[in-house]
Amino acid sequence: MLEVKNLNVSIGGRKILNDFTLTVQDGEVAAIMGPNGTGKSTLSYVIAGRKDYTVESGEVLLNGVELLGLEPDVRAAKGLFLAFQYPLEIPGVATMTFLKAALNAQRKQRGEDEISTPDFMKRVKEAGDRLGIKPDMLKRALNVGFSGGEKKRMDILQMALLEPSFGILDETDSGLDIDALKVVAEGVNSLRTPKRGFLVITHYQRLLDYIVPDTVHVMAQGRIVRTGGKELALELEQSGYRDYMAEEAA
Amino acid sequence: MTAQIIPTRTAAETALAEAFGAAKATLPGCAEVAKLREDAFGAFFEAGLPHRRVEAWHYTDLRALMRDALPVAPTPTAAAIETLRAELGKSAAVGPRLVLLDGVFVPEVSDSLPAGVTVRSLAAVLTEGRPDLVALLAAQNHQIVDPIVSLNAALMQDGVVLEVAPGTSVAEPIQLVYATASSVPLARFFRSLVVVGAGASVMIAETCHGEGGRTGQTFGCLVFSVGDEARVGHTAEVTDTVAGSVRLDSFIAEIGAKAKFDSFALITGGGLVRRQIFLRFAGEEAEGTLSGVSLLRGREHADTTLFVEHAAPGCIGRETFRYILDEEATGVFQGKIRVAPVAQKTDGRMLSKALLLADTVAMNNKPELEIFADDVACGHGATCGGLNPDQLFYIQARGLPQADAEALLLEAFAAELVDEIGHDGLIDGFRADVAAWLGSRAKA
Ligand SMILES: Nc1ncnc2c1ncn2[C@@H]1O[C@H](COP(=O)(O)OP(=O)(O)OP(=O)(O)O)[C@@H](O)[C@H]1O
Ligand SMILES: [Mg+2]
User: Fold this and answer.
1) Is A119 in a helix, a strand, or coil?
2) Residue whose CA is closest, atom 11 of ligand 1?
3) What DSSP string describes B219-286?
4) Does ipTM top 0.85?
5) Pick from B248, B227, B84, B255: nearest CA to B166
6) How many structural domains is chain A composed of?
7) What ranges in B144-203 are assigned the alpha helix state H?
8) CA distance, residue A248 to nearest chain B CA (Å)
């Protein structure tokens, strides 16, 4: 369960998150939609532990554990995963090497043994097959020269391997073609369990046809301004965000 | 004494003059070579040790940094050779080894070479005086005006002369192994020549051997003559210098038409290291890649200075150098690329990148292009900075602690160039060197 309580965040003196509050239950898929620049990526970075932001007040609890103040790697080991809106290219690090280093680093923090190489290979191959990632891509440097869609798939592959208790997907659908969208959505759906929750940030209702959310939240100007079921996404598709922006300005 | 017309000599310069005076009667070589040595020493002595007002040495003021000249290393003793033989037996080789002990070729502990490749000691070649080889060993002095190249030519004790017959294809890298017999600081002067015949292919790996490290002062010179359409790879492992030592390597290559020449060097040692590389594209449509990684900490100083001359049309030159600087280290990268009027369609790209891990490091970059042809594509770039915080965050968000994320990025920064070497055994060796350097950083 992820609980964000009264989170106030600024950067360079500018307020981005404004008393932001949201709870995602175990096993729940919550979607956040909202206009550009409203603070969706900021929210995901702050939860994951990026340091550029000033957290003025608030709490972020993952399964009851306060995340604020922990290093990003500790948060990851505690079960948090962020699929980046823009996954980074890491030249000189073979994808396979990176995946194994990440997996073993998390296991080590949790006091578990390193994964055996055959076990690791098998799991990478399974996840790769499911997500349509060709083996030769795994030999290349991580994300270097990958297409936009390939990078997104690679992030989901990482999520599948790392088996977090909570996943945040920041616009994982952007840059995906229609077939890839289905493949990625199936990949995410196969990870849905009664325990594992997801926060899915998207601009497009179409993703939510494939990853069907339990709740949909509208975010505007740094906070949740409306909450509903999956039909809310359809409504937004028709009406856009004008009402929410006006409401805020008023 | 009317000393006013003689520039002030430093103690080191005076000692070098004495050393040359004492040694010249016994240094190997026929009469013609003796004359060349005299001329070379004259050129050195006239210029003196290079200092900061000499443009090419501006960032490595040797006159200030090399206070004294050490005694020249004696010929290795039989006992030292036996010790070395035993040690070599225990270490792994990636290919046949040619061993130099304090700069002197030791055939007794060297391996035999594949068909089409011959080796002789430099001393033997200089004594015999075969004109074509003497010309290759000496001609450089006239084209390259550098006091340290001259000093090496005057005092060169030994080295190897390797000839690869035209069309020969050598499968495994030939290693030039540098070993040191004594940990007492001494000076060594060696020069080697590699003549690669037309259409031949070979890889030469300079490696170092021994725990003690190369103390003292080392003046090395390696000359390559690469025939038309030959393919040559070269690597240098400069990882055995220690604090207080001075190592000056001159690397001279002239490459023929349609030849391909790739050279990589790793520098991790202590003290003062300068590699000066003189690459000349003498025939058309050749390709040359020079690359290197310097990993420095403490008060280490490493200088890589390039002189690349495009003297023929249609050649491709790529120069890529990377530095990781920590603590109070100093990095120097100078790259002078000259494109002669005939060298139309030259394609040249030079890039230096430095990662600065402390505020107290210094990186000096000086790229220079002198282009005398009008139809060329040449560019250069230099960057200095820290690790990319976005990349660090991404890696940390996947579970690696900050120190491990940093180490991963640092290793990758070096490995990107190491992985281009094109021989798995050598790549593994260099990767191990890089990992060892990073490992000792993590412990510090
Ligand atoms: N490092 C930064 N410095 C200054 N402003 C920033 C920084 N990072 C984000 N912002 C600002 O914070 C606001 C929220 O950005 P954020 O990326 O969180 O929006 P978003 O909702 O994810 O938008 P999009 O839908 O376009 O992805 C924007 O106005 C952005 O310009
Ligand atoms: Mg965003």
Assistant:
1) helix
2) A37
3) EEEEEEEE-TT-EEEEEEEE--B-TT-EEEEEEEEEE-TT-EEEEEEEE--SSEEEEEEEEEE-STT-
4) yes
5) B227
6) 1
7) 147-155
8) 32
Q: Which of A14, A20, A41, A244 to mutate to test the pocket of ligand 1 (most atoms within 8 A of CB)?
A: A41
Min Cα–Cα distance to chain B from A111, Å: 13
pLDDT bin (cut points 50, 70, 90) of residue A151 is very high
* pLDDT per residue as tens digits for the range B22-41: 999 999 999 999 999 999 99
CA B70 to chain centroid: 21
| Most B CBs within 10 Å, among A11, A45, A50, to test the B interface | A50
How far away is chain B from the Cα of A79, in angstroms, using its nearest Cα?
10
DSSP label of A45: H
Interface list for A 151-190 with B (CB within 8 A): 158, 162
Is the confidence at residue B2, as pLDDT, over 70? no
pLDDT tens, B352-380? 999 999 999 999 999 999 999 999 999 99
Does the CB of A48 have a partner CB in chain B at under 8 Å?
Answer: yes
Note whether B405 and B395 are within 8 A (CB).
Answer: yes
In DSSP notation, A223-236 reads EEEEEE-THHHHHH
Give the model's confidence band at B3: pLDDT under 50 very low, under 70 low, under 90 confident, else very high.
very low
Identify all chain B residues contacting A103, using CB atoms and an 8 Å cutoff: 399
What SS3 state is found at B291?
strand
Domain of residue A9, CATH code: 3.40.50.300
Q: Is B291 exposed, middle or buried (0-12, 13-18, 19+ CB in 10 A)?
A: buried
Nearest CA among A151, A141, A69, A55 for reference residue A98 = A141
Q: Does residue A79 belong to the interface with chain B, where contact is any CB pair within 8 Å?
A: no
**Cβ proximity of A184 and A127 under 8 Å:** no
Most A CBs within 10 A among B394, B402, B404, hence the mutation to make, goes to B394
Residue ranges making up the domain that contains A138: 2-249
Tokens of A80: 């948090």
| Ligand lying closest to the C-alpha of residue A203 | 1
Q: Do B391 and A88 touch (CB under 8 A)?
A: yes
Q: What is the pLDDT of residues A52-78, one digit of tens each?
A: 999 999 999 999 999 999 999 999 999
A54 lines ligand 1 (CB under 6 A): no
DSSP annotation of B163 reads: E
Q: Does B396 touch chain A (CB under 8 A)?
A: yes
CB contact under 8 A, A101 and B404: yes
The rounded distance, in Å, linking the Cα atoms of B174 and B94 is 8
Burial B44-62 (b: 16+ CB within 10 A, else e): bbebbbbbeebebbbbbeb
Return the beta strands (E) in A88-214 as ranges: 90-94, 141-142, 166-170, 197-201
- Chain A residues whose CB is inside 8 A of the B419 CB are 92
Condensed to tens digits (0 to 9), the pLDDT of residues A158-209 reads 999 999 999 999 999 988 898 889 989 999 999 999 999 999 999 988 999 9
DSSP letters of B97-118? Answer: EEEEETTEE-GGGSPP--TTEE
3-state SS of B299-332 is CCEEEEEEEEEECCCCCEEEEEEEEEECCCCEEE
**Three-state DSSP class for B136?**
helix
Task: Measure the CA–CA gap between B367 and B344, rounded to whole angstroms.
Answer: 21
Alpha-carbon gap: B379 to the closest alpha carbon of chain A (Å): 22
B402 to A73: CB separation less than 8 angstroms, yes or no:
yes
Length in residues, chain B: 444
Is residue B116 within 8 A of residue B164, CB to CB? The reply is yes
The pTM (predicted TM-score) of the whole model is 0.91
Q: Which residue in B390, B399, B416 is closest to A73 by CB distance? A: B399
